[in-house]
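Can you give me the bound-state structure? Components:
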Amino acid sequence: MGKFVLTLGLIGLCHAAYSATQHKSYMRLTEHDLDSGSSHISSLPLDILVQTVLCLFLSCLGVIQVAAKFKPIKITSEWENKTWDNVANRTSFYSFNHRGKFLFSDVDSENQRLLSNYVNINRAENISKKEDYSSESENYSLDEQSN
Amino acid sequence: MMMKNDQLLALSESAIRYNHFLLDYCQTSISALSGCTAGIIGLTGLYGFLFYFICSILMSFVLVAFLGKNKSDYFLSTQSLFTSTIWSGLQTYLLFWTFLYGMCIDSII
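Here's the bound-state model for the whole set.
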């Protein structure tokens, strides 16, 4: 919105300048220029005057809307939305080699995996051992049932 | 840090600096634009300087209206909005005023 108003004002100012130049050269050609030297405000037509002042006002509004993005000066307003972790953050003092590596890493799951592997191996061994027993015991049970 | 109504008020220096920079930016742009306008209209002599002061004060009023109620969040005093940059913009104004006057009114074309 601000950029649009600013562009409109600047284009209007350029057009007004061009119109003023045209008017002046026309006045000079028709030799009306000689009597206007006495007054402080030159004899521009009213529409060019109005357009110039209006475009100045428009571009003022545009500049203020585009540029005037002020910061609040109170330090508390700057820190209002920040946590202490953000404010006291010092990147130079980061330490990555601490106990958190072991507390929050996948060491537990790693241990779990190793443990389960161990259990599986043992279970497999047990099963293979059991199979020997079970064949015997099956026979035994079958014998029992037959009895 | 400054005392105000018996309580400490902590101010961010960088924010104050930045606000003043933005104010200066606005003032410079507006003095350039009003210089262009004065040149196009063809003001001469004291009327030109009068036009500059009117434009500058008008711009400050527009800025105050733009900031609205919470202008104390951005500036310590309202007076500084009006007076802090009024003389530094005058040179820019003179430059554009004479340039545009020479281009539009005094041209040989």
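A couple of observations. Chain B has one domain: 22-104. The helical segments of chain B are 13-41, 46-67, 78-83, 88-104.
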